Amino acid sequence: MKETLTSDNMNMAYHALAAVMMPFIAFAVNFFLKRGSKVSGWISTIAIAISAVISIIIFNHTFNTGTIHFSRTWFTIGATNVPVGILLNNLSVLMLVLVNLIALPVHIYSMAYMSHDKNYSRYFTYLSFFCFSMLGLVVVDNLALVYAFWELVGFASYLLIGFWYKKQSAVQANKKAFIMNRIGDVGLLIAILILFVQYHTFDIGTLFGKDGLVFHSVINAGSWIGPVTQLPQVWQYVACGGIMLAVAAKSAQFPLHTWLPDAMEGPTSVSALIHAATMVAAGIFLLGRVYPLFNVHELDALAVMGCFTAFMAASIALTQNDLKRVLAFSTISQLGFMVMAMGVGAYASSLFHLVTHAFFKCLLFLVAGVVIHEMQHIKDENGLDIDPQNMLYMGGLRKKLPLTFIAAVIGGLALIGLPLTSGYLSKDGILIQAFEWSDSKAGIFKIVPILTLITSWMTAFYVARLIFKVFFGKFRLLDVHPNIKFHVSDGGWNYKLPLVFLSICCLFPVFSLNPVLYEHAWVYKAFLPSNFLERQNIYHTIIPAGLNILSLVVIYWAYAVYIQERKLPIRQNNWLFDLSYNQWYFNNLYNAIFVKPVLALSNGLFVFDRKGIDGFIHALQNIVIWLGKLAANIDRYIIDGLLHLLAAIVKYIGNLVRSFQTGRVQYYLISMLAVIVAWFIFKTLI
Amino acid sequence: MIPLTHYLVLSAALFCIGLYVVLAKRNAIQILIGIELMLNAAILNLVAFGKHDKVNNGGQMFALFAIVLAAATTAVALAIVLNVYRRYKTIDPDKVDKLKDKN
C-alpha cells in the first residue's frame, strides 16, 4: 500500500489525534470536577463540538483522496514492534465525522435531559470517556490498538448502561451487556492472535489494504498459505469465527443480541448514542476494516446470521410495549441488515446504511427521550405509579409536542425507508444487492432476500404502530387516571436543536441529489469502483417500487388497527404473539442453558467449598489442635515431670544430707563410723 | 602363755565399750573417759603385737608415744570442756549444737 506522508498529511494525522483527544481532555477535567457541577456539561459539549469541527476539516481534506497512515513504534517485545498510529482512509474518516455529528446533538440534548440528575457531572465524565474510546477505535491503525479501544468502548458502555447504579435492573443490564461483550472480546482476541501468527504484523493497512498480505494468501489443500508463513486451514475459519463473534456481541447479532434491549436501563440519551453511531456500529465498522479476510462461505454465514437477526428482532419489535425497547429491537434488526449486506457483498451499501441509520435512530431515540421526559413529568406531578416508557399510557401527543411529532414522523419514515428519506436510499441498496447475490447462489439462499423483504414490511408495521400509539388517538393515561392535570411541551432549545438537526440529516439531499436512485449517493460511491454502479437488471426498479407500495399498505393496515380500532385479521393471543412478546424466549432459553447451570455449578462448588474443603480444613485443624494438646501434655507431664522428679530427688537428697548436719558432735561421729563401717563392708563384699 | 587372740578380743571389747561411751554418754567428761578406753584398746594392741618384735621393741615405743599423746590430748580436751561449760553452762554434748549452720 502506498503511503504518502507529506507535511499536509502529517497535519491531518495530528488533527485526527486532536479530534480523538478532545473528549479525553474533557473526561480528565470532568473527572476532577466537583460532583454534580453544571460546568461539566459545557466542558464535554464544547470538547465534542471542537472535535466535530476538526473531524469535518479532516473529512474535507481526506475523503476520497487516499490513505493517510502515520505510525510510530509504541513498544518492542523480542523482534515484534507494536506500533501506535493513525490510519485515515474513507472508512475511518467517515466514521470519525459520523460519531462526532451524532455525539454532538446527544451532548446538547443531554445537558437538558440530565439537568435534574444528582450525578450530572459523572454522566458527562462517562459520556466523554465513551466518545474518546469510540473515536480512538475509529482512527487507530493496528489491531492491537483496535482491541484496546474495543475494550474501552465496552467498558464505557458498561458504565453508562449502569449509570443509575442504585437501580437493580440497571445493574443487571450492564452486567449482562458486559458479559455478552466479553464473549465477543475473546473472539476478537483469538482472531487478532491468529492473524498475528499468520502475518507477523498488527498493522491494518499492511494486512487488509490494497495488495495487502491477506490478498496474497490462499487456501490450498488444507493449508492457509500466506506470504509469511502457513497454517492449517482451520485457523482461517477460527479467525473469521472470532471476528464474527466479536461483531455479534458488539452489534447485538443473534445469538448475542439479548443485552441490547436490556441496555435501555441507561439514560435515554445514552441509548441514543450507543444505538446510533457508536457502540453497536463498532461491529459493522470492524467488519468493514477486516472485510478482505472473509471468504465466500464465511460471507454466506454472515449473511444468514444478519438476515436471521433482522427478521427475529423485527418480529419482536411488533409487540413490545416499552417505547425504548421497540427502538432497541429495531436497532438490532437494522444492524442485522448491515451484517447481511456485508455478507452478500454489499460492502458500500452496508456502510451507507450504517451512516443513515445512525441519524434516524439517534433522532428516534431523542424523540423517545422527550416523550419519556414528559411522561415522567406527568408521573411526578401527579404522584402516579406508572412506567413512563409504556406506550399503552400514551396517545394523542402530536398536538402537545408538535416539533417532536414531526421529528418522529421523519425518523420513522426514514426507518421504514420511504422515498425522500435517507433510509430509502440505503435500505433499497441492500435489498437489491441481496437479490442479485441470491441469483448466483443455490435456491435455498433465496430465503435470505425474501426474509429481508418481509422484515422491511414488519419494520413499516412496528414503526407505524409506535407513532400511532404515541402521537395519535387519545391520551390513554386519562382512561386510567381521569383527574390528572398536565402541561407538556417540546422543551427548550437543548431539545429542539438536536431534533431539528437530526431531522434534516434524515432527508435525502444530505446524501444524494436524486431522491430515488441510491446509486447516486456520495457515500456509496466512495467505497466502490464506479463501473459497479450500473443498473444491471430489473431488480433496481421493481424492488424499491414493490417494497414501498406494500409498505404503504402495511402502514395503512397499522392505521386501521390502531386508530380506527378495527380488529386484526388474526387473533392476538396466539402462539406467534407470545413468541414475539416474549422476545422468542431467548432470555428464558439463555437462563435455562447458561445462567441456571452456572448458578447450579456455583452452588455446588459453594457447598463443596463449605462441606468438602472447609470440612477438610476443619478436620486438619482438629488434628492440629489435638496434636498441640498432646504436645502440651507431653511437655507438662513427661518432660516437666522428669525435671520435677529430678528436682524432687535432688531436694530429697539435699534434705537427707542436711539432716546429718545437726551440729551435735556425737551424730557426726556416728556418721563417720557408719561411713567407715559401710566402706569396710563394701570392701569386704566386693 | 596367753595367745595373741585373747589380747585382740579384749582390745576389741575395750574399743567397742569406749566407742559406745563416746557415742552414748550425755557428759563430756564421760566421753573423754570413753576416748581413753579406745586409746587404751589401741595401746593394748600395740603392746600385744610388740611382743613379737623383740629386736626393736617397736610396739612398746608406739605405746609410750600414744600414752604421751593421750595425756596431751586429754589436757587439751579438758580445757575445751571447761571453755564449753563456761559458754553454755552445760557439758551435755547434745545441747552444745552451735556448730551447725543456723536455719
Characterization of this structure:
The complex is a heterodimer of chains A (686) and B (103). Chain A is mainly alpha-helical and 686 residues long. Helix content of chain A is 69%, strand content 4%. Chain A has helices at residues 7-32, 39-62, 90-113, 120-139, 143-161, 168-199, 204-208, 234-250, 259-262, 268-276, 281-290, 296-317, 323-343, 347-382, 402-416, 422-439, 447-471, 477-480, 493-505, 522-526, 539-562, 575-581, 586-660, 665-685, and strands spanning 68-77, 80-88, 218-220, 223-225, 230-232. In chain A, the strands form 2 sheets. Chain A has a 3-stranded antiparallel sheet, covered by helices on one side. Chain A starts with 6 loop residues before the first helix and ends with a helix. With 103 residues, chain B is an all-alpha fold. In chain B, 73% of the residues lie in helices and 0% in strands. In chain B, α1 packs antiparallel against α2 and α2 (28-50) packs antiparallel against α3. Chain B is elongated and about 50 Å long.
Give the tags:
heterodimer; A: 686 residues; mainly alpha; two-stranded antiparallel sheet; 5 strands; 69% helix; 4% strand; elongated; B: 103 residues; 3 helices; 73% helix
